[in-house]
Design brief:
109 residues; mainly alpha; 2 domains; 0% strand
């Protein structure tokens, strides 16, 4: 299924999940409930499953970069003895984003 998502066959994945749900195979109630939940998720997010197109457009495939940045910012802004007000932290985060994106040139000139 993951390979199908990565290779542009999102509709096929959703169809297959729907077929699993329609099958008359007896399942434990907990399994049926979980399957229904997952199928609903894929049905409601089918417009967001275009991983191949997103990757071709240059977007990262996973969330690793965003998670790494979050961890870096937490380490830098939540160090021992550091305390920030909500507005102060918001300003610091904006500056961090400017620097990370390379948009900080006008700040220093």
């Amino acid at each position: 299924m993951a390979k199908s998502l990565r290779t542009g066959r999102e509709a096929r994945v959703v169809r297959r999940l729907e077929q699993l749900l329609e099958a008359t195979t007896p399942r434990p109630a907990a399994t049926q409930t979980e399957l229904e939940r997952e199928v609903r998720y894929f049905q409601s997010h089918r417009d967001h499953l275009h991983y191949q197109a997103m990757e071709q457009a240059g977007a990262p495939r996973g969330s690793g970069a965003a998670e790494s940045l979050g961890k870096q910012l937490q380490q830098r802004l939540r160090g021992c003895g550091q305390s920030w007000s909500r507005p102060g932290l918001t300003h610091l985060l904006r500056l961090c984003v400017l620097v990370k994106n390379g948009d900080d040139v006008h700040l220093w000139s």
